[in-house]
């Protein structure tokens, strides 16, 4: 067989794995959207079966043979795309084959029981109920990290699964700088004399109207409905890719902004997924490179564009029309200030764009100490509250609004949190570059034009798939290492006039 | 390993196959309901991947080892249910392993191209476009039949896949009798002096109201919404089983009856699927035994109950309320006659319950001649039209309303059609028995009570899963062989007063 034939055969196998993956995503989508309540047990069984088959195919002798053939062959002849695909499937193979099956099963069981314990602990705000499970999950995840292997920190082995090539050491220094800049900025904002912006009118916002507005805005920014759709789920998400991208949202008829910005956020994820190169469908070359880069796209559309003054020149008349006459007496400027309010708060998922990263840095710092064995599980609530006081100047009244608020650890997910703040940093640095490359792009939005920005994202980020690890992608796109100054500049420039700092 | 352990291990494997099957069904459901248009190609790939894995697992060495172990072991110790499950998985294994992979692939390709040719042929009403593909598909399916093997007729090998244990010989004699009784009954009805019933008012029937009425009626007959749902698709179907049963329908806002009886029909399929014994989930013991038995359940609820005078005593006020005031001037009796109109017509899927089986018998007779090599493909239009004239006294004006109307042959599906008419026969014979076992059951419906009938179907049919082959099930439930007299009696008794025969 020629190297081309070997590669083609490898790609065919990779596409089968990808088809299996797409099937799993669809089942999970159905679980969250349309499945009748009693279908849950049968659905878990289906998901477990597919994921077992997926794992077996990924670590199979067939996959090993493909990778061995391409490792020895003259792969460079086939060019960059082939190199990316082989590199990434090798990485996936290595990760999956290093973790013993028994450990995978032990983790799955502990996750399932851990989540139950966490739900009860959060409801009762009683950390002691969850602590033994967190201990167990932490231990198992450390074993997993050791099985996978790492160079500097055990944390890296877990974090790498979500943010290829990123390390605790690198993040620690970036986050420390970010923290030291955000804390005083938040202080200045919340201590400013600017009166709290006018509240959005307390009205019923019918779901159908929210949906119509959301669709109109997603259409404007370029979401392709022939290749995607929106449904309703308890927790919003985006799944699928390229020609079949599913967004979900939830509608709160008392609060218009949840679904509105939720849809802009998921729509940003969706634009990334729809933006890969279809020639590479079913291979890493047409897949999202990391959670952080994914988040940079959702935040770009939710916050940088979606909470921009120019954007609302275009969008506010639409909002007024859909909910007429509710907003007749609210000026666009009042609306703009309302959707850009900054507050010290306890709950990460409700935080604004200035305080958000502090919530994430707190979790990251605790996670590293936990994984590296310096923070005992029993001391987490105290450590959490101390950092909350340091970063945001407030103290949770109980663990439910403190260290029990997020589901991640209960599911054994460590190393995931930093990707949220990395997304903020990436999005600001990418956007700074987009503005340089596209003079006057901010003026497009008021005219309802988003094609230049989307085109830039397509070319510089989406179409590249997994070609570059996130930190390399940042360098390739912006010519610089990741730097906190872009996010700080963006926030300072935006919030200085709003809060008359 | 003890025989019990061997059996448990076999059941575990069977359940994995069943989970894979359920995943395939869900993907196919999504394809027909929510998939965005551009998702089609990726969906085919997913379905092909899963069905390939399914086939490999079914004919794997693992499956063979399980079956061998249980063939040699003392299976009888484990009782009837174990015997049924092993017998049925062995049957599935034998069928799948006898057909060479190359033939499976050739058939799949011919199906795909054959369907395209058929669609064009039907649109242009030009049989010549389809004939070469039908020739090819017929040849391949004959090869498949020969690979599977049969005792009397090659037709049996294909038909058995849909109606276990049923044979051309047995059907030929039953259908000949049925045909000879239906033809004069149809004649008497269409030649009767009774004026055509009043037309249902020509109005818009809003989809939401049709849906609400449909849900109300399905709830009444016992469909469990915690374990099922309704969505919209171009072609109505029912998929899934036990705790997750999905029905689909389509709404025609000009014709209320399509979705109404369509939902009663799919609801009948759904009641069967929800009615299996959950203790046996994922094994043949909790699966539908045949298409004919499935159809007996849908026809029971669509026609025997759903077009019953007593049923409409209960349901008509609901219909009047949902569509008020449209039906204020239409009496229940007029409605009853309207939904039980009998007409000679060309299109099977639009036929009423008296003429329907003649459409099926026509197809069956042609199919047997084709498969047994006595009817050349080129002669089908002529043979079709001759039978249409014989059975229904009418001649299609072209092949689009003649031999090109159904999709089945274009998809290489031979041996399926008879299950439609078998469903009519089974349903009438089962119902006759139910009336004997449940005195006065027909009087329940006017009171909106359907629990006695459903309970009887659950116990006698649903809960038995694949325990008995259809012809044995008929004997077990009714104490007799399948007999056309029950359907003829039912139709004669019902239509004699309607048409004053």
Q: In words, what does this structure look like?
A:
The structure is a homodimer of 501-residue chains. By secondary structure, chain A is mainly α. Chain A folds into three domains: 3-159, no CATH class; 168-195 and 346-419, no CATH class; 207-343 and 425-480, Neurolysin, domain 3 (Orthogonal Bundle). Helices cover 61% and strands 3% of the residues of chain A. A three-stranded mixed beta sheet of chain A has the order 1-3-2, sandwiched between helices. The radius of gyration of chain A is 23 Å and the shape is globular. The termini of chain A are far apart. The mean pLDDT of chain A is 96. At the A-B interface, α1, α2 and β1 of A face α1, α2 and β1 of B.
What does this entry show, briefly?
2 copies of one chain form a homodimer. Chain A is mainly α.
Jot down its keywords.
homodimer, 501 residues, mainly alpha, Neurolysin, domain 3, 3 domains, three-stranded mixed sheet, 19 helices, 61% helix, globular
